[in-house]
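Attaching the record inline, Q. Sequence:
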Amino acid sequence: MVHAPILAIAVPLLGAFAAPLLAKLDKRARDAWVLAAGLAVAVFGIAVAVKVLGTGTPWVYTLGAPSPGAAVTQGGFPIRIVLVVDALGAFMGIVAILAGAVGLLYGLHYLREEEGKTLGLSLLLLLWAGILGLVYTGDLFNFFVFLEITSIAACALIGYRVWESRPPEAAFKTMTMYTLGGLLVLVAVGLLYGEHGALNIAYLSKLITGSAVERLALGLLLGGLLMKAGAVPAHMWAPDAYGEAPAMATVVLVANTQASIYAIMRVVFTLFGGALARPGIGWLIASLGTVTVIVAVLMALIQRHLGRLIAYGAVSQIGYMLLAVGVAAVARGGFGEVALRGGIFHMINDAASVGLLFLVAGAIRRAVGSVDLMGLGGLGRSLRWESGFFLLGALALAGIPPLNGFASKFLIYESAFRASPILSAIAVLASILLLAVVVRAFHGTFLGPEPKEAPPSPKGMLVAMGVLALLILVLGLFPGFFLGRLVGPAAKALLAGRAAYLAAVLGG
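Structure, as predicted:
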């Protein structure tokens, strides 16, 4: 377990490249290998989270050092690549592990051999590795590298089904936006390297004072990451990507989008935390988040494709997270911490509720071959478990108590009201509209005067959906436990833990 941080990244990478070779020998060996890799990643990721949250200090892992458990510096300058996992990184690791494990379990039973099962599982493992690397790395250039790994794997997952017309088109749109966003991030990294001659996040944070070049780098970083997150006005790729990707991939794609939100938090509060005293950046992020919420919900109202409807619902939840991050950047303390706790808590809640809805949509498509709401209806009698899961996920997505979405959204509403009652009112209104959207989707899919027959989903798919449904209930009924043990430490690591992050890497 000394090497748990790097193994959590290396194991899915190895799994991704070894799975096609094993598939040539035996398909059952491939499935066993994928399950074993997924289990190993879960063990390593949980071990990282337990240690970091148990000790309350960041875990620094230095690659290639004789003693990897400590940073290697020379004259205060870090001379090796490091992984730095604080409470926020540990929390995001748990979200990624949840999404990846559920996606793998679902995918093993959802994908058919003739539809590229081996390729789909390999790309899923590769995307999983990229997300974990992105949230664990302490080096800005390697952050860009992992960002690109996630982009390549995500685009391939969305568009590899070339025998259909829409997935390649969705992948091209996604690739275009990801490429532009990645280019902005790369230019920002180059500017900071040219200014300070370093790439280590902690070392750069110590040197950044808010110069013109640094402010330009901040704008480029935020622009690239907001594109990757799917914030308005750069959201046009997200509905196509989520709507056309294989169902098992959408769960991990949600975690991939949230990794971009994590990156925005890391940039604002850690990298530039010592130089950003003005609230302008916070108001910008909060405003973009609010616009994203209302635009996405209004677009969801007119959708007849179930996958795209859920996708716009997913985009609206990104807006809530951005609103929370913006309010936290404006206030810094007090109700700013409440906002950040709500935004971070909403990450795992969103992964569970949106992920469950996408998995149900995938089960419907597998059963009847379509997710067009105009051609569905009456499936509730044949797909009883799926209908119950969809209703649970829909109510959680809309923030109906006592489900998990209510707990995190209430914190966001409360803190946003302290910053601006108008922003809070828009967020509440959007949730009401979203409730109407998901109720219409449930009625159009599962209810109707004429019951329709459909084959039941395989048990493995039902188990994967059941895991997310159980998580929705547990998070909603016991929010205080998770806020105290997971979310609270993650928020404090950002707002008050910058000094500890720098000290863990640089010493002192």
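The chain has 19 helices and four strands. The beta strands are 59-62, 73-74, 77-78, 82-85.

More tomorrow.
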